[in-house]
Specification:
The complex is a heterotrimer of chains A (176), B (330) and C (171). In chain A, the strands form two sheets. Chain A has a three-stranded antiparallel β-sheet with strand order 2-3-5. A two-stranded antiparallel sheet of chain A has the order 1-4. In chain A, strand 2 and strand 3 form a beta hairpin. Chain A is an alpha+beta fold and 176 residues long. Chain A contains five helices and five strands, in the order H-E-H-E-E-H-E-E-H-H. Chain B has one domain. Chain B is built from 13 helices and two strands, in the order αααββαααααααααα. Chain B has a two-stranded antiparallel ribbon with strand order 1-2. In chain B, a hairpin with a 2-residue loop joins strand 1 and strand 2. Chain C is an all-alpha fold and 171 residues long. Chain C has a domain of 81 residues: NADH-ubiquinone/plastoquinone oxidoreductase chain 6, subunit NuoJ (Four Helix Bundle (Hemerythrin (Met), subunit A)). The relative contact order of chain C is 0.07. The chains are: A alpha+beta (176), B mainly alpha (330), C mainly alpha (171).
Chain lengths: 176, 330, 171
């Protein structure tokens, strides 16, 4: 009988909500209690070092290219031994959406996500993290990995000195 | 000659006590509803302002008072400004009829715990509840907004329909009490509460007052999912607050009336009468909040179907059966 | 206590003013608002005249039901602003003037022929007396009127029924 079904439906629902009144709330009272996010939680971005203490970032711009909101910018430079590094490296956390695409794009495991989600400032300019703010003194999630041990052998010969190799063009100069 | 000022003084005292009590109760109803709904949904609810969040209504009041009082430029200024009062005042005035306790012997004079004991009390209640429609209708119309207009049209249709079944469900109560005076209806239930004789009428009345309060599952005039906020979409600040508080006052008043008509008013063993009345009224308020936490909103045609094709005919049949039974009893 | 006459004149003035506004107001919703005010004043006057039941019925039926239905129809149909409505011509005014003259004459006659009418002292028309008069003395009339209303309901149902036989009745 449909009327009976309707009434029993309402009563079943009310019994369910009645039970839930006495159930412990799942709420976490944020500033007092904080939840522990999982290690792979995607929040504040860091730049890690390799096990030898050198910077992992080789300023390849892949993270910047992968970033859907264009919040990563940097300037590449070259050390005396021919290895590339970032002269400055900047992440605008007021734009970052914590999608993790930069960390996936990074070939040297330099850029990584941490579970530290409490990034808020009263002044929006303080969300502009420079290289000094981003660089940490540990290896992050990949303690063993060193890019140059796999791929990079120390460059033995300066650029433009090989057989049949012309010296590199000075891109800042006015003449061709 | 000293009698008259004393009576006026007593009346003023009663009015002010009841007004303060009912406004405070309405403000805390909002708080209680938020907490209870939160518990039903496994949340905690507002608990930041004061101990256990008990000062939340005060914070809400300050927020509402500080907000801009805005009237849409294309709206109808006068009716727009008047409508919230038209919605809230009938609800508050209705409480003047409710006997909240047994008559008390105060300084040698017997004082009724009821502001006015009219010989047409029940009819005045029906009249006031039919007047409350105007706040909804004119408020929505004067906003000059499509959502508000749709909300107020729905409100009009719903309130007229359910007023009918509400009035008809009260006829058996009048037949049993042989009076429309509220104090006599209460004293007629000194032995047995009318809910025992009239469970069907009680159920119809309960559903009708749910619809009269515009509460879920009958909250079509202000359906958030469909009409933004229904008839009070364009209202802000304390005018919105008046609509809002008016709704909660309505819950308390109708709960009080339901306990007066069916649950024996202030009658009850052991506890003092005022406590009994408060308990009964608050249990209705709790039931309303509980229903809101449980049920989804009806569709418009389902609402009309329920009102006109189920509740009204049932109420009429109930009247007939009651009349027959009373005739046989002699 | 001289409060009663003051209240009466106050309410009467409100009623007359509201009714005049109701018929001169061009916007239908405003006219309804004025008319409801007028009904309220009328109900209060009935109450002062010791007829609380009539007062309540005035509010419940006229202000609470009929005017609400008017408003419902106006809001559903939106008749628009009547600013461009045609002004009534002299021919339209004539019947109004005629009846106004009759009312005025009756008023003058009443004032001229006024004598102290013994006011029936009553403690008010209670619900019981009202019901007894309604259903005992005028019972037949009530039944006839209710039959008439029933005919009206059946007629409305007949007119509103869908004619096409293909569509089945769905609730």
């Amino acid at each position: 009988m449909s009327l009976f079904d309707d009434i029993s439906g309402v009563i079943t629902g009310m019994w369910t909500t009645w039970k839930h009144i006495f159930r412990r709330p799942v709420t976490i009272q944020y500033p007092e209690e904080k939840r522990q996010p999982s290690p792979r939680y995607r929040a504040r971005i860091i730049l890690t070092r390799d096990p030898d203490g050198g910077e992992r970032c080789v300023a390849c711009y892949l993270c910047s290219a992968a970033c859907p909101v264009d919040c990563i910018s940097m300037q590449a430079g070259e050390r005396d031994n021919g290895r590339r590094f970032a002269v400055w490296f900047r992440i605008n956390f007021s734009r970052c959406i914590f999608c993790g695409l930069c960390a996936e794009a990074c070939p040297t495991m330099a850029i990584q996500m941490t579970p530290d989600y409490e990034i808020c400032q009263r002044d929006i300019m303080e969300l502009l993290y420079e290289k000094e703010d981003l660089l940490v003194n540990h290896c992050g999630k990949e303690p063993e990995y060193n890019f140059y041990r796999h791929a990079g052998i120390g460059i033995t010969q300066p650029r433009g000195e090989g057989d049949g190799e012309r010296p590199p063009v000075d891109v800042r100069g006015l003449l061709p | 000659m000293t009698m008259v000022p004393l009576h006026i003084l007593a009346a003023l005292l009663k009015v002010s006590v009841i007004l303060v009590a009912i406004l405070t109760l309405a403000a805390y109803m909002v708080f209680a509803e938020r907490r209870l709904l939160a518990w039903i949904q496994d949340r905690k609810g507002p608990n930041r302002v004061g101990p256990f969040g008990l000062l939340q209504p005060l914070a809400d009041l300050i927020k509402l008072l500080a907000k801009e009082d805005f009237c849409p430029p294309a709206g109808d200024k006068w009716l727009f400004y008047l409508a919230p009062a038209m919605a809230a005042i009938p609800a508050i005035v209705t409480f003047a009829l409710v006997p909240v306790g047994a008559p008390v012997d105060l300084f040698g004079t017997v004082v009724d715990l009821q502001i006015v004991d009219l010989n047409v009390g029940l009819l005045l209640f029906l009249a006031l509840s039919s007047i409350a429609v105007y706040g909804v209708a004119l408020g929505g119309w004067a906003s000059n907004s499509k959502y508000a207009l749709l909300g107020s049209i729905r409100g009009l249709a719903q309130l007229i329909s359910y007023e009918l079944s509400m009035g008809l469900s009260l006829v058996p109560v009048v037949m049993l009490a042989r009076s429309v005076r509220l104090s006599e209806i209460v004293s007629a239930q000194a032995g047995v509460w009318f809910i025992v004789y009239q469970p069907l009428a009680f159920l119809i009345f309960l559903l009708s007052i749910l619809a009269e309060c515009k509460r879920i599952p009958f909250d079509l005039p202000e359906a958030e999912g469909e009409l933004v906020a229904g008839f009070h979409t364009e209202y802000s600040g304390m005018r919105f607050g008046l609509f809002f508080v008016g709704e909660y006052i309505n819950i308390i008043v109708l709960g009080g009336l339901a306990s007066t008509f069916f649950l024996g008013g202030w009658h009850g063993p052991l506890l003092p009468p005022v406590v009994w009345f408060t308990l009964k009224t608050l249990s209705f308020a709790f039931l309303f909040i509980w229903l809101r936490g449980t049920l989804p909103r009806l569709r418009y045609d389902q609402l009309m179907h329920l009102g006109w094709k189920l509740l009204t005919p049932l109420a009429l049949v109930n009247i007939l059966v009651t009349a027959w039974w009373l005739y046989l009893k002699g | 206590m001289n409060l009663l006459p003051i209240l009466f004149y106050l309410l009467a003035a409100v009623m007359v003013a509201a009714t005049i506004f109701a018929i001169t107001e061009k916007h239908p919703v405003h006219a309804i608002a004025y008319l409801v005010t007028s009904f309220f004043a009328l109900a209060a006057i009935f109450y002062l005249l010791a007829a609380p039941l009539v007062a309540m019925f005035e509010v419940i039926i006229y202000a609470g039901a009929i005017m609400v239905l008017f408003m419902f129809v106006i809001m559903m149909l939106d008749p628009g602003h009547a600013d461009e409505a045609r002004r009534p011509g002299l021919l339209h005014w004539l019947p109004a003037l005629f009846f106004a003259g009759i009312i005025l004459a009756a008023l003058v006659m009443g004032a001229a022929l006024r004598q102290a009418v013994p006011v029936p002292i009553s403690t008010g028309l209670g619900v019981k007396e009202f019901s007894l008069a309604l259903f005992r003395r005028y019972g037949v009339a009530i039944e006839i009127i209710s039959m008439q209303l029933l005919f009206a309901v059946v007629g409305a149902l007949y007119l509103g029924k869908k004619r096409s036989p293909s569509r089945s009745e769905d609730s």
